[in-house]
Design brief:
By secondary structure, this protein is α/β, with parallel strands linked by helices. It is built from eleven helices and ten strands. The strands form two sheets. An eight-stranded mixed sheet has the order 3-2-1-4-5-6-7-8, with helices on both faces. Helix 1 links the parallel strand 1 and strand 2. The model has no long low-confidence stretch (mean pLDDT 95). It binds nicotinamide-adenine-dinucleotide. Nicotinamide-adenine-dinucleotide (NAD) binds next to helix 1.
């Protein structure tokens, strides 16, 4: 199999001063990419700033013979997003790959969130993805090539306790991906990665609000089964694929957990179709709930237009019965 090669490609990885982002940068650079290593370098709650994190990763890449520059802008501002894309152009003349990896957390129970906790997390994960991706996307459209990777989390798409702000912001990546993918020209591709790894700074810190003991015990019992594959390098393999010209699909979501690689998708059940103009009663809904909920037959629409086709198909089926 031909080796995935990033020679001549330029990548921007946000929040890349440690954890998964660092691993992505090292892997991309080792295969020839010139890399902009962005990191604000603050606390896991998103407070403060430091140049040390990004600088260390740049030094590592250069020591191994790779090409990299550091950038310390915040993804959470429009100026910051524009600044890091400009850094790629100034240093390397183009931008081919954007990995929206930067992240913070402010974990609370749902009833305890302040507006500041909500805003701080949405600002980095959700608005940050807009602010970084938009200026890069414009350039990618002009050059007719680009690979955009958004980063989601199982905390939202499947759900984990004590992080409603984070889970909601991360699941928004699915909507952002779906819409960009509909608008993007051929060969500007956007996909979503759902990583899991130890070693990042978001894994919990003293003073964090923790899930209840029952959840922690249930999670703890599963750890021995997946811990072997929890190294950031397991995730970097999938990231490199999504960032490469070997990836030709857009609008796909992939999970990496404990050595298992899976596609995540949003589908809808074949459901129940009510023909005609007379709306059903709530009792009709109850009467057909088993059919509405039946997961044995489902569709995976690739757009809102595609979902309309499932209604047309249901109407045809009903007419034939
Ligand atoms: N580690 C996991 O198991 C896991 C699971 C699901 C999702 N994720 C996601 O993967 C990404 C990386 O996670 P990690 O565990 O390596 O975390 P990490 O904390 O080690 O890395 C995130 C980095 O983002 C930087 N950052 C924070 N706010 C920033 C801002 N405004 N601008 C620029 N940089 C900023 C931080 O300084 C930090 O270095 C995050 O988006 C995280 O939500 C991680």
């Amino acid at each position: 199999m031909t080796k995935i090669d990033f020679s001549g490609r330029v990548a921007l990885v946000t929040g890349a001063g440690g954890g998964l982002g660092r691993e992505y940068c090292l892997a991309l650079a080792a295969r020839g990419a010139a890399v902009v290593v962005n990191d604000l370098g603050g606390s896991t709650a998103g407070e403060g700033a430091s140049t040390d994190y990004a600088d260390r990763v740049v030094d590592e890449i250069r020591a191994a013979g790779g090409k990299a520059v550091a950038n310390y802008d915040s993804v959470a501002t429009e100026a910051g997003g524009a600044g890091m894309v400009r850094a790629a152009i100034e240093a390397f003349d183009r931008i081919d790959i954007v990995v929206n990896n930067a992240g913070n957390q402010r974990n609370r129970r749902f009833g305890e969130f302040s507006e500041a906790d909500i805003d701080a997390v949405l600002a980095v994960h959700l608005k940050g993805a807009f602010f970084v991706t938009q200026p890069a996307y414009t350039l990618m459209c002009r050059q007719g090539y680009g690979r955009i990777v958004l980063v989601g989390s199982q905390s939202g798409i499947f759900g984990n306790p004590i992080r409603a702000n984070y889970g909601a912001a991360k699941t928004a990546m699915m909507g952002l991906m779906n819409v960009i993918a509909q608008e993007a020209p051929t060969d500007v591709l956007v996909n979503c990665l759902f990583p899991n790894a130890v070693g990042g700074r978001l894994g919990g810190k003293p003073g964090d609000v923790r899930p209840d003991a029952e959840f922690l015990a249930a999670a703890g019992a599963k750890v021995p089964h997946y811990i072997d594959g929890m190294q950031p390098s397991f995730v970097a393999a999938m990231l490199c694929y999504l960032a490469s010209d070997r990836c030709t699909s857009s609008q796909n979501m992939y999970s990496v957990l404990g050595g298992k690689y899976s596609r995540i998708f949003a589908g809808l059940t074949e459901g129940w179709f009510r023909p005609g103009k007379v709306p059903p009663t709530p009792e009709d809904i109850v009467a057909h709930l088993a059919q509405i909920d039946d997961l044995s037959r489902y569709d995976v629409p690739r757009s809102g237009l595609d979902e309309m086709d499932t209604v047309i198909a249901a109407k045809r089926r009903t007419a034939q019965e």
